[in-house]
C-alpha cells in the first residue's frame, strides 16, 4: 500500500482507473484469528476482499482526504510501469503482472461476502485503513 514522503510528490501507478476490492490487512488478521479460534471454520475456504472496488486513483483520493492536502496521481503508461518493474523482476514477469493488473478477471473484481460471514460485519473500506495509517504518508 505504498508510502508517501517529502521526497515523493504523489503516487505513480499504472491503470489508474482499474479497480479491485482491496482488503484491509486488519480484516485478514481478524478472519485468521476467528478461523483459528472457532471450530466452525475448520476446513473452510474463504475469499477475502474489501467492501468495494477501488482504483489506484481512488486510493490516492482517500490518502489526500486523510492528509487534508492534495496528492497528485500520475497514471504510468504500460511502458513506464514495465521499465520500473523490470528493475526488480524479469521482464516477462513484469509483462504478465501488467496483463493481470490491467485486465482483472471477473473473479478478481468480485466483492466477496466472506468477511461478513466470518466476522459478522462488513470489511473496512480503504479510507478507514488510510485514516489509521495517515502518519505513514506524512
UniProtKB/TrEMBL annotation:
Cross-referenced Gene3D superfamilies: NAD(P)-binding Rossmann-like Domain (3.40.50.720), UDP-galactose 4-epimerase, domain 1 (3.90.25.10)
Name of the featured protein: NmrA family transcriptional regulator
Amino acid at each position: 500500500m505504498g508510502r508517501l514522503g517529502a521526497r515523493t510528490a504523489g503516487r505513480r501507478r499504472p491503470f489508474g482507473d482499474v479497480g479491485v476490492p482491496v482488503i484491509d490487512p486488519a480484516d485478514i488478521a481478524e478472519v485468521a484469528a476467528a478461523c483459528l479460534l472457532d471450530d466452525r471454520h475448520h476446513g473452510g475456504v474463504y475469499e477475502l476482499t474489501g467492501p468495494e472496488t477501488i482504483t489506484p486513483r481512488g486510493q490516492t483520493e482517500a490518502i489526500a482526504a486523510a492528509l487534508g492536502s492534495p496528492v497528485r496521481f500520475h497514471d504510468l503508461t504500460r511502458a513506464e510501469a514495465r521499465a520500473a518493474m523490470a528493475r526488480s523482476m524479469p521482464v516477462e514477469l513484469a509483462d504478465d503482472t501488467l496483463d493481470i493488473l490491467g485486465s482483472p478477471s471477473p473473479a478478481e473484481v468480485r466483492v466477496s461476502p466472506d468477511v461478513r460471514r466470518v466476522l459478522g460485519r462488513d470489511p473496512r473500506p480503504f479510507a478507514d485503513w488510510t485514516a489509521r495509517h495517515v502518519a505513514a504518508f506524512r
